[in-house]
């Protein structure tokens, strides 16, 4: 099977390339070569998907059974890719996000939930991440004539994570001492390993599925306490987890989700953040490995990278995950003295 992967050099894209090669695909990757390294065994084509000439050079003399688009963020850019690839591929898989849903996470939803309003030809000024991703889905549907598979993952973790959420927690816990643990250890979470998502993506692409799937793990697995303790075990750390109330953390100026990655205090607007239903994808074969395997394998990858060289945010976005040591110490001291 001939497969084109737009992206393919970092995290999820890397995992998809690995799975496609494992299954015997002839893989072409198309990326700028700036944020990662292509794996041996692929035909690597350098180019910017935002440049029409680069896209036309990509398709010149080439045909694929499927395209897997891992890195679309602006509708008009994805629209142009879909137009140029139309006729050069039989099938299009697009990796989207749960953030396309207009009513989630305040409300439960499924694959037929209401999406944010955004035109298929919109530019980057049209809205935030979720709004733009909704527009990119419409771009694929509008401009690619063959069967189209839309996957909407939630929180993705695993080895080679370039977002830096779990790597920050692993780094912090490995350092030891008192570790600020946010909220309640019983707070439910929900996540998927990038490798499991890659298995499902490639399998559905092979079927040339024309469908929509929410693709995240089982609800409520693990709890925050279980997750942090798995990291203590993986790193062999003697860290002491100090659980600090949500209200106290907010009063101390702790920033949810980024300063303490994945922590979200209970609120009506986020009631279903870690409780969305992936039943359709799970019934269709979406695998879900034990969270301990994800944690252990991520640490095995991360521990070989010097701490000063670890990234705790996407290379091309102004986001940094994790709390400064001084702020963490101040909050812990305030909590002890309350």
From TrEMBL:
Specify the NAD-dependent epimerase/dehydratase domain's residue ranges.
4-207
What the entry lists under InterPro entries is as follows: Epimerase_deHydtase (IPR001509), Lipid_A_modif_metabolic_enz (IPR050177), NAD(P)-bd_dom_sf (IPR036291)
Stored Gene3D superfamilies = NAD(P)-binding Rossmann-like Domain
Give a single Pfam family match.
Epimerase
Q: Which PANTHER family match?
A: BIFUNCTIONAL POLYMYXIN RESISTANCE PROTEIN ARNA, UDP-D-APIOSE_UDP-D-XYLOSE SYNTHASE 2
Q: Identify this protein by name.
A: Reductase
Native organism: Sinosporangium siamense
